[in-house]
Task: structure prediction
Amino acid sequence: MSDIPLKNQIIEWIKPQQYWFQFAGNRLLEGALVNEELLDATYSFFKEDFGLAELHIERTSVIFNEIPIASNDDVSGLNLIAIHSINSSVKNN
Result:
């Protein structure tokens, strides 16, 4: 099994794709609903990417929100120093 979260794996697959695919994929990964607004925007970018329409607005870079991965170095420096003040709430009759 890979230690890389599935979302991060999907993002790595989306990154080299054309802009329309990155745009739609990122929105879906972030929980957007498939509605007319998303479909219209994606279709507009698709047409622009394939030269079927002129670029109407300047595109912003797609910012992907990857899941942070804790490295082994982050936990290797932790040491249990003490356990104290433990009370048992179980009563024997």
